[in-house]
Write a structure and sequence with these properties.
By secondary structure, the protein is an all-alpha fold. The chain contains 49 helices and five strands. Helices cover 63% and strands 3% of the residues. Keywords: ATP-binding, Nucleotide-binding.
């Protein structure tokens, strides 16, 4: 082909790059763009742009083109980096790192064009920081860096906040402000919880969706940032990251966020981080387990460190002693004659501190205590020095290679976390206390201090008064972010710091009663009601010290704590709280307390009184102008009505709630849609009705991009379940397929359970079994969700003719259930267990009676496991009569006492609620019995109806057809062919029938 177009460029590095690229193309014989595209694995249009457009290409396509032309990648990398640097040619940082070529390529390509999470894992000293820093220097996108720190483990979302804060500081917040303007309305207020410097609207501290909004806000703002400018995140030392940031990273790993994220983690430092790694590496885009350097790579490292190649003897000795760990090699390279390292690396690192001047030692102490990069002026202030003394001390530390300016900034930090840990062990108690006190002071004076970090410094400075003040601040910050575990830990520490005698510390800004009540609130959020009970008693005992509002709050907390163990006492507490709030004229809090009262009454079995309280709360909320609150009370009213058997009234209330639109409340719409469809499923509504009720919530998930919000996935599952229930399997498949193209992940686990159910019905039993096996490795946190998963697993086992597996699975699954953990799925699960037991007994005729007795007793024990009978009136599902009839029929089949009537009555009940597959199953069983009793005509009629019911249920259709073929040679209709309009058939029953 002819010469390609050469863009008109000014002389400089970009011009040199383009000129060299066209020269390489000419030397290769001018291959066509389509030929090069096939070799490079990209489109010919992309390669044409690399050759011809006047702007600088991304490195990925350029690298692929150079490789296709058999050019020198390193040479072109230097040219490209020189062009990206605006004319200042520089040696690529990859020339300054030994080995890690493959890992570097993976990280570089991920940062430039990837998405999701890549993890770099390995022990300390393997060079994780050097690797990711090198990769970040070799990409054209902007990279934000943040590092986990042990001192910030109690500050929720600290790591994520640090990364976003770096974005905010990039151009005085202009980029971040533009990104926020493109996001849904909830994003800015949610991010303000972790970035107080943002000028956004007020955030509601009691928002029930705060945590989910936070996850969605981080994903939304990152996606918006990426749309405006290529961006990536590097988050280091995840073993010390806070729980909120780790949870957020897990969401990003499986979400639709386009921003590439790289995280580094050192194993063995934190059991929580190790457990997180085990779980999240399934969802990560890639996980790099960093190996030690080879001998050749160690030789490269020594050459880079000392400027000369080591002798073979020196190399063998260094590699043997260092075991390929770059940090160890660096220590040995400083003295090539050393025969060994000290037993502990910390001893080798400590030797670098010998002979430091007092000023340098003071700076090292402050840097180690801070354990984070700090501006030189802040470090100097903490060390009580400035001017020439500070400059001289910093110069000394740089000469000794003790400092490392992270990521081309001028901040002061020790060269490696292990060096910082070594310095802290070398400090005398007085030095450590003084350093932490000074660091606490300078951090507290910052514009937006991390309260948990400051509190931890005061703890290490042994100042309980200051620590108490900052613990309270840290606990309130954690409460605003819905981080109950961190909040509880701070409140409990504050209680431990409270003086046993003497006046309360005024600086804490909290009374003892407030402290107790806040701790109880956090514990309830964690589900620790038993541990919270003594604190409630103590708070109530402080009655004289409580204001009326505090007293009402104490009563509410008391009711919430006692409702599970002593509901009658919880009722009394809630009544007193409602009365106290009525006197205060705080109507919103009063309505909320009435919700506590209603819950306690229901727990005590006083349902009519609970209905009356809910009705009063509904009347009050209607006049407050708080549409969201009124909607919540209305949907609670709907739930009460359905449970009490007032189905039509309940559904009318739910319909009214669904017509109440709260602008911008996407999460509320999803919550309402999920609640409404739950009620409709319990009432066995049609698939169209349930799809209509879900539409507003599904639209909200699309608008706010919150499809992986837990209630969003459950809302989709409800619509799919409705289609399955009415026998519309193709419709169910069309709904669920787009959500389940990828492997099962924690955030999509419910969707994959539904997909497995659909696959079972479509006859793909092997596919369903494999999918369920992957789903079983994920966490199901509530009883109803576990029981739903178990039901689908057992159903798959049964159609695979593995009743023993199904029965063991159900038994193991419900073994740890509590007496109150029954759900609408419990009756279905027990019915599947009875079916499995009957199949087992039927398959072993010699031991049938013995097996039947034992299995019947076991099933009855399982039924009595729950405090309420799963088949009784407390189970409000409209399908329960049909489920119970099927349960009784399966037990009769187990005992060999079943009759055709058992099954036909159950089938009729399923017909009444439009559940064709269940009706078809019952009629198939009835046909089996009819044939066994020689009732061929009845069997034929039952099989025809069963076949019509089973449309879409492939395994059941196969059993029906097999029964026809094996037991019926020919079927003769009693109706003449001329009248029926089809051919006549003859019924002939086998002799053994």
């Amino acid at each position: 082909m002819g010469a390609l177009h050469v863009p008109d460029l000014e002389p400089g590095p970009h011009h040199d790059l383009v000129e060299e690229l066209h020269r390489l193309h000419s030397e290769a014989g001018r291959p066509s763009l389509r030929r090069l595209a096939r070799a490079a694995g990209c489109s010919h249009t992309t390669l044409s742009h690399v050759f011809s457009l006047p702007h600088l290409p991304a490195w990925g396509p350029l690298e692929a083109l150079v490789l296709a032309l058999s050019g020198d990648v390193t040479q072109f990398r230097e040219l490209w980096l020189a062009a990206t640097a605006g004319g200042s040619r520089r040696v690529p940082s990859s020339r300054r790192i030994a080995g890690r070529r493959a890992e570097l390529v993976v990280l570089r390509r991920h940062l430039e064009a990837g998405s999701g999470l890549v993890l770099v894992v390995g022990e300390g000293g393997l060079g994780k920081t050097t690797l990711v820093a090198t990769a970040s220097e070799e990409v054209s996108c902007w990279v934000a860096h943040a590092r986990g720190r042990a001192l910030l483990a109690g500050e929720p979302f600290a790591l994520v906040a640090d990364a976003l804060r770096e974005v905010h500081a990039q151009d005085d917040g202009v980029w971040l402000d533009r990104a926020l303007a493109e996001c849904p309305d909830f994003v800015g207020p949610s991010l303000r919880r972790i970035l107080p410097e943002l000028e956004t609207a007020f955030v509601d501290a009691e928002d029930r969706f705060a945590l989910d909004r936070m996850f969605a806000a981080v994903q939304s703002v990152l996606s918006s940032l990426a749309r405006q400018r290529p961006v990536a995140l590097i988050l280091e030392d995840l073993q010390w990251a806070d729980a909120g940031s780790l949870a957020c990273l897990e969401r990003l790993a499986v979400g639709s966020c386009r921003v590439p994220v790289v995280g580094t983690l050192r194993r063995g430092e934190s059991s929580a981080a190790d457990a997180w790694l085990k779980r999240v590496r399934r969802d990560a885009t890639y996980c790099i387990d960093l190996p030690p350097l080879t001998a050749e790579e160690t030789e490269d490292q020594i050459r880079l460190l000392v400027g000369a190649h080591p002798t073979r003897t020196e190399l063998e000795r260094v590699h043997r002693i260092s075991r390929g760990l770059p940090l160890f090699t660096r220590e040995l390279a400083r003295s090539m004659t050393r025969d060994e390292l000290p037993d502990r690396l910390s001893d080798a690192l400590a030797s670098h501190l010998d002979g430091l001047t007092p000023s340098a030692r003071a700076l090292v102490a402050v840097a180690a205590a801070a354990d984070r990069p700090l501006p030189p002026g802040v470090v100097g202030a903490a060390a009580a020095m400035d001017g020439a003394e500070l400059d001289e001390a910093l110069r000394e530390l740089v000469i000794r290679h003790l400092l490392a300016g992270p990521y081309d900034t001028s901040d002061v930090a020790l060269g490696h976390p292990m060096l910082a840990a070594t310095v802290r062990t070398q400090l005398t108690p007085g030095e450590a206390t003084s350093a932490h006190r000074r660091v606490a002071g300078v951090l507290a004076a910052a514009s937006s201090p991390a309260a948990a970090e400051v509190a931890e410094h005061w703890r290490r400075a042994t100042d309980p008064g200051e620590e108490l003040r900052w613990r309270v601040t840290a606990a309130r910050a954690a409460c605003a972010r819905q981080a109950r575990a961190e909040e509880t830990a701070h409140w409990e520490r504050a209680l431990a710091l409270w003086p046993g005698d003497g006046p309360p510390p005024a600086a804490a800004g909290v009374t003892r009663a407030e402290l107790l009540l806040e701790a109880v609130h956090a514990m309830i959020g964690q589900g620790r009601t038993v541990q919270a009970a003594p604190l409630v008693d103590e708070a109530r005992a402080l009655g004289a010290d409580l204001t009326t509002a505090e007293h009402a709050l104490a009563l509410r907390r008391s009711s919430q704590v006692m409702v599970a163990t002593d509901p009658e006492t919880a009722v009394l507490f809630a009544q007193e709280a409602v009365a106290a709030l009525a006197d205060l004229d705080d109507q919103v809090a009063r309505v909320q307390a009435m919700g506590d009262h209603s819950s306690a009454l229901r727990a005590a079995g006083r349902y009519e009184e609970a209905d009356d309280v809910t009705a009063e709360a509904l009347h009050l909320s209607a006049g407050l102008g708080d549409l969201a609150l009124h909607r919540e009370v209305l949907i609670e009213r709907a739930w009460h009505d359905v449970v009490a058997g007032r189905t039509q009234a309940g559904l009318s209330a739910a319909d009214e709630a669904s017509r109440m639109h709260v602008p911008g409340d996407h999460f509320g719409e999803v919550w309402l849609g999920t609640f409404h469809t739950d009620l409709l499923l319990m009432c066995c509504a049609s698939g169209d009705e349930i799809a209509e009720a879900a539409e507003a919530g599904l639209e909200a998930t699309r608008e706010a991009d919150i499809g992986l919000f837990i209630l969003s996935t459950l809302l989709v599952c409800n619509v799919v379940e409705a289609r399955i229930s009415e026998g519309a399997v193709p419709k169910a498949m069309r709904l669920i397929r787009p959500y389940t193209k990828d492997r099962p992940r924690q955030t999509t686990r419910f969707l994959h359970v539904m997909r497995s159910w659909v696959d079972v019905l479509r006859g793909d039993l092997d596919g369903a079994s494999k999918r369920l096996e992957a789903v079983a490795a994920l966490d199901f946190d509530t009883s109803s969700h576990r029981q739903a998963q178990l039901s689908v697993e057992a159903l798959c086992d049964l159609w695979l003719d593995q009743p023993g597996t199904a029965l063991r699975r159900i038994g193991d699954g419900i073994a740890e259930e509590t007496t109150t953990s029954w759900s609408p799925y419990t009756g279905t699960l027990l019915t599947l267990a009875a079916r499995a037991a009957a199949d087992l007994a039927f398959a072993d005729p010699p031991r049938r009676d013995e097996l039947a007795t034992g299995l019947s007793d076991m099933l009855e024990l399982w039924r009595r496991q729950w405090s309420d009978d799963p088949f009784g009136p407390a189970a409000p599902h409209v399908a329960m009569p049909a489920t119970y009839a099927t349960w009784r029929a399966e037990l009769a089949r187990l005992d060999d006492t079943a009759t055709v009537t058992h099954w036909t009555e159950a089938a009729d009940l399923w017909d009444r609620i439009h559940r064709p597959h269940d009706a078809g199953y019952c009629r198939w069983r009835a046909a089996e019995l009819s044939l066994a009793h020689g009732q061929g005509l009845i069997a034929a009629r039952l099989l025809r109806r069963a076949h019509a019911n089973a449309r879409g249920h492939v395994p059941l259709l196969r059993r029906i057809d097999a029964l026809r073929l094996s037991d019926l040679v020919e079927v003769r209709s009693p109706v003449p062919a001329a009248r029926r309009g089809d051919r006549a058939t003859t019924l002939i029953v086998r002799d053994d029938g």
